[in-house]
Amino acid sequence: MKKLNRRNFMTLAGASGAVLAAGASNPKKARAIGGDVSFANGGRDFSPVTGKERKAIPTACWQCVTRDSMMGYVEDGRLKKLEGHPGSIRTLGKLCAKGQAGVNQVYFPDRILHPMKRVGKRGEHKWKRISWDEALDTIAAKLKPLRDAGTPELFMYQYGRHKASQAATMYDFMGAFGTGTIGNHTSVCEAGKWTGQESLWGGMYDNWDYDKTDFVVNFGSNQFETHTNHIPTSQRLIRAMVDRGVPLYTFDVRLSNTAAKSTEWVPIKPGHDGLVMLAMINVIMNEGLHRTDHFKYMRVTSDYHATTEQKVAGIKEQVAKFTPEFAESKSGVPASKIRDIARGFAKAKSACLVTYRGTVMHYHGADQERAAMLLAAITNNLDTPGGRVMGVGAGWKAPSTPKAKVHKSLHIKDGFPGEAAFPTHHVSHQVGPMIKDGHAGRPKVYWWSCYNPAFINGDNKEWSSILQDESIMPFLITSTITYDESSQYADIILPDVTYLERWDWEDMVSANQIAEFYIRQPLVKPLGESRCQGDVWPELAKRLGFELAYKDKKDFVRQSCEMTPGVKEAGGFDYMMKEGVWHDPNDKGNYGFYAKEVDVSGDGVILDKDTGVYWNHKKAGVGSDAKYLETKGAKNAYVAQNIDGKALSAYAPNTSFTKSGLLDFYSDNFKSKGLPPFPTYTPAPEHVAMGKDDMILTTYKVAVHSHSRTTHCKWLTEIKHDNPGWINTKTAAERGIKDGDAIKVKSHVGEITTTAYVTEGIVPGVIAISHHFGRQHSGIYGSGKSNPFDGGASADPDAKNMTWKKHGVHPNAVIPNSSDPISGTQRWMDTVVQVSKA
Amino acid sequence: MNKIDTPKIGRRDVLKGAGVTVAGAAAVVATGPEVAEAAGTAPRWAMVMDLRKCIGCRACTVACKAENDVSLGRFRTVVQEKTIGEFPNTKKGFLPIMCNHCEGNKEDGVPPCVKACPEFPGERMTFNTADGKKIRYRGGATYKRPDGLVLIDSELCIGCGKCIDNCPYGVRSFNPFVKAGKAPDKQAADKCDMCKERIANNIDPSCVNTCQGRARIFGDLNDPNSEVAKLVKEHNLTKNVLLPAEGTDPQVFYIDPDNMLEKLYTKREKGKLDHYVDLIP
User: Fold this and answer.
1) Which end of chain A has a smaller Cβ tally under 10 Å, C or N?
2) B197: Cβ contacts below 8 Å, ≥ 6 apart
3) Mean pLDDT across A745-754
């Protein structure tokens, strides 16, 4: 047999070249493979036109907070294609539709590519292109006087999706400047979920261990379409179901794709997830299906020293009134169904209790999350393999600049006085209304990025009017890639890079309890004059008279790679640039963090007899006779919890809740604020007062869009650009509404007109409208009109092939900013509306 | 396939592994490709869609758009979805569809699109198999390669649209960015080519690569050890195809234990392509 080398193989293939058709003129195309060839699951890509291999660069997504590690493929300097990183333990080489459409973020024709200065009135859309020097000089001239006057807090920064090094560089700059007036967006996201968790296990972010689980019960999470850790978790869940026969029960008001793919969709009335969970707990406790393994970590009455028997009795007593029949009468879920699912959940070897926005974006949503934690705890499914586990992400080290001597904050981040008892993730939707109110002060400079307050908040028209009013908001800066509902009012627009043109280290939670370290690196040179904010901060700092600990974002990432244990030894920055991802190959997965034994022999460590907490009184700066719970800041001196005579790390108080190391299912914190100390059922007041013809409006996300950052992505908006209101066939018939009819949806803050999508896939009495659309400005693809700058439809030859004329309607115009009194979470799912034929 | 640590198989290794000889047998056939002498030397590319694992996420739809720079207003693959049943026992299912790379009817082995193409049969072509054999076949503006891929040669296309009209599945459309080679005032026909450049380099097609449920499985039906061959056998999928009565012999098979295929499939209306648009209601 003649040995073939590359050249004679080509010759061989080329021999038929003369008869190859033009479309296959490249001899490679005639090459055949077959037999037992294995196909690699990615890592390489080829031009379908030339057959040439594209340059492959590992990087990370940013279409949503999941931030998948991925590969970018570049051809002749142009980004052509994105795919999951085949070496990632999180994504396993997968990427979602949004991630795939990341290419559109770089090249959408309405992208802002130059610094712009407003020259007309706010909202007149009159702009002048300026240089970066002029832009930064202008900004420095506004900021420097604030810092010099000892009022750095009058500079406010607010962000949407900043994480990892994008957030770290921003916080570093703001710290060096001296302002703590930094707003986020979490209250419109899922803050109540974290508040509920923090009151118990001390931290936040539950992962669901689908690779090992045997049973899944899902309340209000549409994770097959969208989730904060979508690709890592969703793919594991569907494969667990099909490959291992794991059942999935989904409670949802709407037949989402997740509900559709579940073993069973269990329709439920909005706001009743917690009640059904309590009824499940009732069934499990009364039928003796609970497992007591975890009870030693739980506190279910005011007693810190209760026996397991006393705790069993305590839980039974608390949930006695929540019978399945009572739950059925309120939630619409049949009692028999509640019993069956409760039994299945409790008897499974391991089980995941899943919750998300459907559960928590309600009145007392944080309390409903506490019920979910209780259900997981009594079945020993908290941080155990196959259960609801504490998320594990990468812990990076990073350079930091010394903080300014004067460091202050305006108190406008946590809502109006008395609005929220525990706003542990702030009340971002009220920042605008609080600035308007003015009692807690107003920033003189407001800068936002990756954030669109006039679109994403409740009562968004109110937010819009606040941004438009120069007497309330005197100077506005935004770094953005899009002209949108908010940036239209800015005084200076800085052209941001897309995530595909910048450096970052990344740290999102793994689905398998093993931390993955990964980086984002530019795939192409920044378009136009766009600049990464991480490159802008050092420039701005120089103008303000201080130096940062890094010279640009790349330098920040480089330094971080060289100082982070593990990554450093693996080869640091060079390794990460080449490979993109790193995890410790010896890591077996992090479970049962609460069971770690702790040395309590250290100087100053004492046992607080009341609570069983070991704490360091010296660290807390008090005498050894002080009581733990009564000492201010004592939670920072927490060492361990006495569990059956052993000092264990248990559930340390890592957030603003002062608590013992026990899971506080009986919460003194809640009690002290007049909130229910034990999880209970508290219906939304407006639901109790509903009239016969009232309906509840809920919102949702679809698989192909993030909340507000993707409508200009043509490949996504082509698939979904309109958002009719889902309405049950029966409910529609009662109102004389037929499928496709124009309907009015009215609340006490406004009215919108949309079309009816009459379906059997929603609970009667509810209308569901996705919240991506109704864009005032989102370029040609998102809003049907170009922005006032260069570019526009003429910049993309594909724009003439655009087929859709509809751009939907924005439901936030009828949803008030209204907070959960526990967490301050925006109550997206509670709005009472009237729906009629338009 | 689909293992993360799959070793990269270079061209030389592939050829070695397949036992290449230079002097292969060759055969000339009139129209449809035939394998001469040593049957089974060419692969038969096929796709299995596991409907249990399709979650309707549309990653495949968009991956295909990017990979092939598919213009707006048309698709190379879509997911159809349908809601069935009455509340509260409502179901919703998802059906990914694409070019079936039909084998063609039993008589002549020519798929309907190829048969409809006025520019077929064209020149004589040679397909070199991995084991060094040559298979002769006929090219054309639309033609079937001996490895089963139904392909378009836009240089030979006259933009008549007959292949588009005659595909019972309606998976073809005009590409506004590519001129028909033989009639430059018209657009060339376009459709899924199974990412032929990727599979020529041992990389899964783009839609398969990104499918998080691993609902799309690609491989060689002629290789009994391939996952597709095993799945077709294990689940008895020979008849689990779209429009089996058409006699087109599709090479895209569906794992469908709940018998959803017919309920979910929105068929083409004659002369229209409205069914082949991915649109989430």
Assistant:
1) N
2) A29, A46, A47, A48, A51
3) 97
pLDDT band for position A656 (50/70/90)? confident
The ranges assigned to domains in chain A are 116-188+399-582, 206-390, 593-672, 690-837
**What does the alpha-carbon distance between residue A263 and residue A52 come to, in Å, rounded to a whole number?**
45
Say whether residue B227 is in contact with chain A using an 8 A CB cutoff. Answer: no
Residue A39 has pLDDT above 90, yes or no: no
Identify which of B9, B57, B128 has the shortest CB distance to residue A703.
B57
> For tokens 């660290």, what's the residue?
A619
Q: Which parts of A202-272 fold into alpha helices (H)?
A: 230-244, 257-261
ipTM given for this complex? 0.94
User: Measured between CA atoms, how close is B245 to chain A, in angstroms?
Assistant: 29
CATH 3.30.70.20 given to domain B22-272: yes
Q: List C-alpha distances in Å: A376 to A66, A223, A657, A666, B281.
A: 24, 19, 21, 16, 35
Q: Is the pLDDT of residue A224 over 80?
A: yes
Q: Which of A554-563, A784-793, B219-228 has the lowest mean pLDDT?
A: A784-793
A265: β partners: A250
Q: Check whether the bond before B121 is cis (ω within 30° of 0).
A: yes
pTM of the model: 0.93
CATH of A690-837, one of 3.40.50.150, 2.40.40.20, 3.40.50.720, 2.40.50.100: 2.40.40.20
Count of alpha carbons within 13 angstroms of residue A361, beta-carbon side: 23
- Using CA atoms, how far apart are residues A708 and A445, in angstroms rounded to an integer? 24
Cis peptide leading into residue B88 (ω within 30°): yes
Chain A residue with Cα closest to B157: A23
- The predicted model gives A552-564 an average pLDDT of 98
Which amino acid makes up residue A117?
K
What pLDDT score was predicted for residue A793?
73
Who wins on pLDDT, A247 or A9?
A247
Q: Do A39 and B204 touch (CB under 8 A)?
A: yes
| Full strand arrangement of the beta sheet holding A352-355 | A264-267, A248-252, A216-219, A352-355
Token couple for B141? 């503006």
Confidence category of residue B30, pLDDT binned at 50, 70, 90: very low
Any A CB within 8 A of B39 CB: no
Residue type, B208: V
CA distance B197 to A591: 44
Give me the architecture of the A116-188+399-582 domain, per CATH: 3-Layer(aba) Sandwich (3.40)
Give the per-residue pLDDT at A792.
72
